[in-house]
Amino acid sequence: MAQIGVSAMKRIEDLLDIGSFVEIGSYISSRNTDFNLSDKDTPKDGVWTGYGTINDSLVYVYSQDSSVLGGSIGEMHAKKIVALYDMAMKMGAPVIGLIDCAGLRLEESFDALDAFGKIYLAQTKASGVIPQIQAVFGLSGGGMAISNGLSDFVFMEQDKAKVFVNSPNAIAGNSQDKNDFSSAKFQSESTALVDFIGTETEIISGIRELISVLPANNEDDMSYIECSDDLNRTTPELIDRISDPALAMNTISDSGYVLEVKKNYAREMFTGFIRLNGNTVGVVANRRVLYDEKGEIAQEFENVLSHQGSDKAAGFIEFCDAFNIPMLTLVDVKGYRATKCSEKRMPKSGAGLTFAYANATVPKVSLIVGDAYGSAALSMNSKSIGADIVFAWESAKMGMMNASEAVKIIYSKEIDSSEDIKSTLDEKIKEYENLQNSVVYAARRGYVDDIITVADTRKRLIAAFEMLFTKKEDRPYKKHGTI
């Protein structure tokens, strides 16, 4: 009995500021008597609940205890979590769940099932009001995996944690030793459920860092910190780093701060948080190159929109908009990924990305750093769908499509009948680029607000967000959109 709750409580102690945890509901235990459950000791009904602080900011936390009936969710276990949510909603503070749960408690049948449903209801009501973070340290099975999906951010221990709706061994053609669908690797790389993976120590540290950059709720922003970086610092080195937004953001952000989200999923699309003049800013960016820790190229990407990247960006934009976090978009896209799989899903995914940007009312700034062609570029926070400010580098290329492709369509007859096809093609491409694929052409028509130098990027972005700080924008009254 001495070991009951040790891991669950230690995780809380490691997560919160020293001595700040206050437990709620410590005497609650199971009240069910079926299957001789009353003869079993169920201290705290398998979950510690309470509140404390992270860097002096109030948070509510629950930690499941796998030593009590496998951490399974029974009636009173769920009621404790729901009560915690009710208090967090009243106070406008984040809820953090430390998950180690085998799923529903079979001995409690409908009582457990109904109570678990009330957790889903509490999470749904809290969505967009307070941040919800879950960290999976052991099992997260069955309905608990759905609870993971209802959270804003999910951390997962990289070796021991398992997330599954159906047991991996129950899926035809799959097993834990062959292709484990429940592993952290699969959940972070293939499903987009998990935002961060790491050791238990790294996860605890990561949650504390994430809390420091997020607002406490959708009305009160306590994430601002004093900026010690030069607001007028020039950034000429950006030109060599822009192909990997993680490096580019390290150059632009205050003191190089970058927190990338879902970094293992759809790597051709970057999503993450930076700071500009002390304020948290959400970033979405097209990625051409991924560098490893040694500064060597680990992976290269075509600058096109994929359905995975579009879904990833759309979800991140919706979170930022819900919590009034300003959005920065770096644009370098020439079209859509041309594969059978992408063609099946791209129309809906592209619509979701477009809707997320167009529907967002937070300050939205775009910077075109490479290509911006066709409707794919429209979806990346263009002026047409509501960007407040659009900047472009002098080297940027904009238009309906790549000049060489457009010329082959427009001047097909002239090129085919030409005695010197290459010369004619080059001449028409240059003419088309000067006329319609020019960033100056776009700026003259108001689609770009200003053409800026690479070196001035940081200070121009800071100035734009400062100007937009008090932005207020309404949308037509409705319950919600349907995209």
TrEMBL record:
PROSITE patterns in alphabetical order: COA_CT_CTER (PS50989), COA_CT_NTER (PS50980)
Keyword Transferase: yes
Gene Ontology molecular function, alphabetical: propionyl-CoA carboxylase activity; transferase activity
Keyword terms: Transferase
Pfam families: Carboxyl_trans (PF01039)
GO cellular component: acetyl-CoA carboxylase complex
PANTHER family: PROPIONYL-COA CARBOXYLASE BETA CHAIN, PROPIONYL-COA CARBOXYLASE BETA CHAIN, MITOCHONDRIAL
Protein name (Swiss-Prot/TrEMBL): Carboxyl transferase
Organism: Lachnoanaerobaculum umeaense
Source lineage: Bacteria, Bacillati, Bacillota, Clostridia, Lachnospirales
